[in-house]
Amino acid sequence: MPHLIQLNQEPNALVVEWSDGQSSRFPHFWLRDHATDPDSYDERTAQRELFTAAVAPDIQPESAELAEDGTSLLVCWPGTVEPSCYTTEFLHAFAAPEANAAQRRPQPWNADTLTMEAIRLDYSDVLCDDSGLQSLLETIDQHGFALLANCPRAVPAVERLANKIGYVRETIFGGAWDFEANEAMADSAFSPKEVRPHTDGTYSHDAPGVQMLLCLDYEAKGGDSIMADGLEIVRRLQMETPDAYRTLTQVHVPGQYRGDGVHLLARRPVLRLGLEGEVVQVSFNNYDRAPFRLPDAEMAEFYEAIRAFDSLANDPQLQWRHLLAPGEMLIFNNWRVLHGRGEFQGRRRMSGCYLNREDFESRLRMLRG
Predict the structure, then answer these.
(1) Which among 7, 116, 348, 369 has most CB atoms closer than 10 A?
(2) What is the C-alpha separation between 144 and 340, in angstroms, rounded?
(3) Binning pLDDT at 50, 70 and 90, where does residue 243 land?
């Protein structure tokens, strides 16, 4: 990382020069808002103590200088006893507007580009230490899912791993599940019929971010697991049917769950966009789509758009298929990857649970350091 070599003052900002020849401009108010003196910032909790609304819009520093070794900027602000220290790491991270919003961009995959070696890990390796757990989370972050082999064939194996990442999310289905085909339940997941690729929780305002599915027992024919990368579907839509892509980012589609004593309902686009226009969540479940009505022309555009989307999700060239053996577990990003299952006959016993998206992200940040 470059170090600081020069400081220049402007009427409303401080400008620092870096050893790599670059320069960065930091407005006075922004620096004051991020002051690190004890009256402004609680280092123990990483919380801001400053009452930002009380800061004068035209605030000026009383003094500002670079540390002799170029590793920090020291600024004294009016009304504070101690100077605030802005490290090179902090200043470099926020050297440009929205620099903190930059994220690693995973590459989309399809049936030809994804290998088993890229997503397969061993349960004991993942559980043994933090590096193993990070390997799992990095795999999910990059490819959207991972396959764990040699898992104990019991519900506690799911809970143990979930608690290493965050905690088991409670839903209308409980915490960790242990289930077989049961057509008395009001959900297609409990049917032995084919389940086409979809995401879970379209009826929830905050859909589960991660899902875990462990095969406990299998005495059946069929029932292969299906995964389809939502990012690859997005890439194809943008390239082949941009109008469909645009429609799916704009129309708020209702999802619902009716049965078992509840009626859940939520709305959001199939493709939810982030601040930079990137897709941050894929939310598609044709089974759980609730009735809704648009003007005729808009409704026709919507149907054309989901026809394009669902056709890609069911294209074998875009799918990863694998028959889970007892002791194998799928862990996947429910905001990116669509999952499904082939029709089966016989006994197929599964366990699993949900986790929150923010807990997955938090654990990965902590492991990355």
Answers:
(1) 348
(2) 14
(3) very high
